[in-house]
Design brief:
Blueprint (H helix, E strand, L loop, with lengths): L1 H16 L1 H6 L8 E6 L2 E6 H17 L1
Antiparallel strand pairs: 1-2
Length: 64
């Protein structure tokens, strides 16, 4: 359980660091990615980008 928590945290940190680069490629602006303002903050729900990145990760994992 601790190993999965560590892997999840490292993956989140990696994605946080790559956010600017992924935005240049168009992730976060796909149809199905929601962005709205609520309580003076900008909220993002990147549903479509998450699905695309998951499919890419599954494809890479299957090749390995």
């Amino acid at each position: 359980m601790l190993r999965w928590l560590l892997v999840t945290m490292l993956a989140l940190l990696l994605l946080q660091g790559l956010t600017g680069w992924l935005r240049k490629l168009g992730f976060g602006r796909l149809p199905g990615d929601f962005e709205f303002k609520l309580f003076g903050r900008r909220w993002q729900l990147p549903i479509a980008s998450t699905l695309v990145l998951s499919m890419i990760a599954a494809g890479v994992a299957r090749l390995l």
